[in-house]
């Protein structure tokens, strides 16, 4: 038992304060960017740009804060798979909705 | 007789599976939380799908106009508050992993305070909407009472009764798109609803706004309850540097709350 627990904890990846702070700084920059980008009118491109920046922020939170980057492959595959199928649902809905 | 047999089986199982009463399935617990987060993805995903569909379709201009009613500063402020709370959340985990109970408690406490700050800002934001007669469910009042087709009808009788000039009358009796208000709106109601004549698209926008930010706020409150539980656990040392699964899993939930807000913010507050 104690052996298996040691083994388990051996694989735990501790992310330091510094890396977390760096990710946080990145998130702040992207937040500023999305507010600034909303102020510029580029017509129908505004929404895709806002969603792209939001997805970059989501990627940072998932990879580092939720430490998906350091998880086992099966869990990464599950997370990627679920997100992908959500994306498919959106694409199929809009393939129908926007072409009516 | 049977109890001896049961005891025997239990002993065998203990040997077979290396059963231990203090064992916590770290991996399984984390997988369980992720599976729960996937259901959250579907819950909010469906709402985002509806929001996109309404916002890019026939109500695009209505959404644009309605979005101007939201306070970008409060929205951006809440974004900063939630992002910072996500940082203190991971700090709390790192501190515990590095063996500092004290700093873990401090960071959990800051996370709770930031979560409450978010709710206070949300409270002021919603209050401002209520002052402008924007209520969840109530904003469709006139439309529900008179129907969409009636919105196009003139109401000469009321105009004659009002004693106002046409310009004056139009000022108080048209909606934001310049469509006349329906017949049968009493003077009392007209007075009460002067400032919130909303089109169907705008009613949908605010309906989605109250539903989605409300459900998100509910998640924040649950997060506060979970974080208080974590604070207690770290304090009593049931959650430690060797056994931090609970704290990490609550962290996952808390980051999801942040993730949802990352998408809510541009879609509601920056759409105008």
Describe the model.
The complex is a heterodimer of chains A (100) and B (272). Helices cover 77% and strands 0% of the residues of chain A. By secondary structure, chain A is mostly helical. Chain A is flat, with a radius of gyration of 19 Å. The relative contact order of chain A is 0.08. Mean pLDDT of chain A is 86; it is low at 1-10. The longest helix of chain B has 36 residues, at 200-235. Helix content of chain B is 74%, strand content 0%. Chain B starts with a helix and ends with a helix. Residues 137-158, 175-179 and 191-196 of chain B have low confidence and may be disordered. Chain B has 272 residues and is mostly helical. At the A-B interface, helix 1, helix 2, helix 3 and helix 4 of A face helix 2, helix 4 and helix 11 of B.
Q: Keyphrases for this structure?
A:
A: 100 residues; mainly alpha; flat; disordered N terminus; B: 272 residues; Four Helix Bundle (Hemerythrin (Met), subunit A)
Present the secondary structure layout.
The complex is a heterodimer of chains A (100) and B (272).
Chain A: H1 2-10, H2 17-39, H3 46-65, H4 73-97
Helix pairs in contact in A: 2-3
Chain B: H1 2-17, H2 26-56, H3 60-67, H4 72-97, H5 101-131, H6 141-146, H7 156-162, H8 166-173, H9 187-193, H10 200-235, H11 245-269
Helix pairs in contact in B: 2-10, 2-11, 3-10, 4-5, 4-11, 5-10, 10-11
Brief write-up:
The complex is a heterodimer of chains A (100) and B (272). Chain A has 100 residues and is mainly alpha-helical.
In one word, what is the shape of chain B? elongated
User: What structural class results from the helix and strand content of chain B?
Assistant: mainly alpha
Per CATH, the class of the largest domain in chain B reads: Mainly Alpha
- Radius of gyration of chain A (Å): 19 Å
Report the order of strands and helices of chain A: HHHH
Number of helices of chain B: 11
What is the β-strand count of chain A? 0
Strand content of chain B: under 5%
Domains counted in the coordinates of chain B: how many? 2
**What letter string, H or E per element, gives the SSE order of chain B?**
HHHHHHHHHHH
Query: What's the mean pLDDT score of chain B?
Result: 78
Tell me how many strands of chain B there are. 0
Shape type of chain A: flat
Q: Please report the distance between the alpha carbons of the first and last residues of chain A.
A: 61 Å
Low-confidence stretches of chain B: 137-158, 175-179, 191-196
Query: How large is the share of residues in beta strands of chain A?
Result: under 5%
Roughly what is the average pLDDT of chain A, rounded to an integer?
86
Largest sheet of chain A: none
CA(first)-CA(last) distance of chain B: 77 Å
